[in-house]
Amino acid sequence: MSLTNKISMLLSRPGDNNVQKDDVPWWMRYGGRALGTVGSFIAIILGLLNVAGIILLDVKCLIAGIWQMLAGFVVIVAEAPCCCFFIDYVQTLSDNIESRPYWNKAALYIGLSLPPFFLCFFSVSTFLGSGSIFATGIIYGMMALGKKASIEDMRTSAANLEAGLGQPTTAPRATLVTNEQPVSFTGAPLPH
What PANTHER family does this protein map onto (predicted)? Predict the structure, then answer.
């Protein structure tokens, strides 16, 4: 058994059918899962450091630390439910999150990581902890965009647009207004 097969077996979800459902490369899928798992541990540990900010009477950093720890817990439940097997509903929640499209996970992770930045702005632990969750959201956002077209397809599309042979179907004037008139400047109004 090769090293990549062992790593794939360790990172695969229990009950997963190991069939690639989309055209996302394996390294990006497992990289997102690994960054989410490690980043959530980092966020939880560094969230504890933010909570210690109550010693300096910094309530905003206390709230940011609590939020960061909860965000880390949500990410670890979604990415590595084996770390929280002692909680009953974790597998159900993880399966529910896993069945969603990649852009939903990206929006969830980015949305969870932003409030600590605004609450405790000058803290390095906030940047590292919530930043790792934010980076996981960015990776899932890139996975949602999908695979890029081949170089031949992009060249033919660009050549057709240059030659005027094809108009993009998503042009605003194609669907917005059917009786559109060109904008022109008629000059300054005449005084009466």
Answer: CALCIUM CHANNEL FLOWER HOMOLOG
Q: Which two tokens stand for residue 27?
A: 């390294």
Q: At what angle do helices 26-51 and 3-11 cross, to 10 degrees?
A: 50
Whether 116 contacts 51, CB under 8 Å: no
CA dihedral 173, 174, 178, 183 (to 10 degrees): 20
Q: How far apart are CA 34 and CA 80, in angstroms?
A: 9
**N- to C-terminal Cα separation, the chain:** 91
Query: How far are the Cα atoms of 12, 20, 49, 172 from residue 42, in angstroms, in the given order?
Result: 22, 29, 11, 45
Q: Closest Cα partner for 27 from 49, 7, 47, 1?
A: 7
Q: What is the pTM of this model?
A: 0.69
37-46, 79-88, 175-184 — which is least confidently predicted?
A: 175-184
Max CA separation in the chain (angstroms) = 91
* Nearest of 59, 92, 88 to residue 78 by alpha carbon: 92
